[in-house]
Amino acid sequence: MADDIPVEPAAGATPPSAAPPPAAGSGGAPAAALTLQLTQVRVPLQDAGIALTTPDAAGRLPIIVLPDHALRIQNGLLIAGVVVAVIAFLFDLQLALRGAILGLAALLVVLGVFRSFLVPVPEGSQAILLRSGRFNRTLGPGNHFVPPWLIVSHIVTTRETPFDSPAIEIPTKDNVRTNVDSLLTFRIAQPEKFVFTISAPDFDQICQATCQENVRLLVRGKDSDEVLDLRGEDNELLRAGIEAALAPYGVEIVRVVLTHVMPPLEFIASRESRRLATLQRAEEQEQHALAMVRQADREELGRAMIEARRKAIELEADNEVARLERLEARLRAYPNAMHWDTESQRLDVARALAGNTRAMVQVGGTGAGDVAAALLQHTLPENGVTHAGNEPPDSPPDNPGQGAKPVRTRG
C-alpha cells in the first residue's frame, strides 16, 4: 500500500521527529533548515505513480523512485505454473484433466513472463532503462512494451520541484548583517545525468550550498538600502548563477524568488526614521511653497485692488473735469439763463427769510431792488446790519439819504 512505502533517509540526516526546532537568527528570520527537502524511495515498479504523489511524515515528495526488483518477471506466477505442471505429472489423472492442468500451468507461466514486457511510467516522470548494466534510453509517461533483459533502474520526476534555501547573516556592502530566504523551482531535464551523477539527498546539500553562495555574492555587492529593494533583474541574476553551477547534474532552474529579506531590527527602525524625517521635510517644503504661493496671490490681489482704485479715482476725476468743462461751456453759451437762474435762487432765499418772523431785515443800502441782499444783511455787522439790542437806539444811519431806518420786528 502507499502508506507502507519506505523512505530511505540520507546518511547522517536527523529524523523529522527528532529534529530540534529551528533557531531564530538576527532580525527574526528562521535559521537554516536542518532536514533534507529532497528524498528518494524504493517501491515496486507498479507502485511508482503512488510513491511520487504521496508525501512522507515530514511532508516531502520523493523525486526519484527505485524499483525494489530489477527483474520484472512475476516470480509468483512462474512458481505457481511450475507447481501445477508438477502436480499434473505426479498424479495419475485422466488425460483430459491432465491436459487442462497443464494448460493452466502454461497460462500462469505466460502471465508471469508477459507482465515483464510491460513497463508503466507515471505521468510527469521518466524511466531509465539499463542494458547489461549500461544506460540504454529513457521512457516517457505511459505503458511501454520493453523486453525483460532491459532493466528499469530509476523513475525520475520531471515536474517542477520547489526548494527553499535560507541564508543567515549575510553581510552587505556596508557590513549590515542580513537574513535572506530564497525559493527556487528546478526541473530535472536530463534524468540519466542526474541519477548517475548524484543522489537526491546529496543534491539537496549541493543545491543548498549553491543557493547560499549566489545569494551571498548578490547581497555582498549591494548596500543595505538596496538589499531591501531587490527586484526582478536580481532574481534573474540569481537564477542564471545557480543554473550554471547545477548544470552538470542535468538540472534546469526555472525561477528564483527572494521571499524574505530581513536586516537587523535596529537598522529597520533607523531606516524608517530617516524615511519619516524625509517625508516630513518634504511635507514642510510643500506647505512652505503653498504659503508662499498664497502670499504672492494676496500681494497680487492687493496690487490689483490698488490699481483698480487708482483707475476708479482717475475715472471719477476725468468725469468731474468733463462735467465742469460742459458746465462752463453751457455758462458761456447761455449767460442770461445763468443770471436768471441765480436771481431765481436769490429770490427763493429772500422769500424763505421773509417768512421767518424772528429775523431783522434792513431794506436799502445795497440797492432798492436787491431784496435778498437786504434780508441777509441783518446778520452782517460790517454791512451796517446788527441784531436787535446790539446797537444804540439813537445811532444815525450810515447813509441817511439812501434808505430807511432799521425796523425791529418781534416774533
Quick summary of this structure?
By secondary structure, the protein is of the alpha+beta class. The chain has helices spanning 48-52, 75-90, 95-114, 191-197, 200-220, 224-227, 232-246, 265-333, 335-354, 371-376, and strands at 40-43, 64-67, 118-121, 125-131, 134-139, 142-145, 151-157, 161-171, 177-188, 251-262.
Task: Outline the structure in words.
By secondary structure, the protein is of the alpha+beta class. Helices cover 45% and strands 17% of the residues. It is built from 10 helices and 10 strands. It has helices at residues 48-52, 75-90, 95-114, 191-197, 200-220, 224-227, 232-246, 265-333, 335-354, 371-376, and strands at 40-43, 64-67, 118-121, 125-131, 134-139, 142-145, 151-157, 161-171, 177-188, 251-262. A 5-stranded mixed beta sheet has the order 1-2-7-4-5. A 3-stranded antiparallel beta sheet has the order 8-9-10. It is rod-shaped and about 180 Å long. The N and C termini lie far apart (145 Å). Residues 1-33, 363-369 and 378-411 have low confidence and may be disordered.
Tally of separate helices:
10
CATH superfamily of the largest domain: Band 7 domain
Biggest sheet, spatial arrangement of strands: 1-2-7-4-5
Radius of gyration: 61 Å
Please state roughly what percent of the residues sit in beta strands, choosing from under 5%, 5-15%, 15-25%, 25-35%, 35-45% or over 45%.
15-25%
Helix/strand order, N-terminal first: EHEHHEEEEEEEHHHHEHHH
Number of β-strand runs: 10
Shape: rod-shaped
Which range best describes the helical content: under 10%, 10-25%, 25-40%, 40-55%, 55-70% or over 70%? 40-55%
SS content category = alpha+beta
Mean pLDDT: 77
Under CATH, the topology of the largest domain can be stated as: Tetrahydropterin Synthase, Chain A
Low-confidence stretches: 1-33, 363-369, 378-411
Ends: how far apart? Answer: 145 Å
Largest sheet: 5 strands, mixed
Domain count, please report it: 2
CATH secondary-structure class of the largest domain: Alpha Beta
CATH architecture annotation name of the largest domain: 2-Layer Sandwich
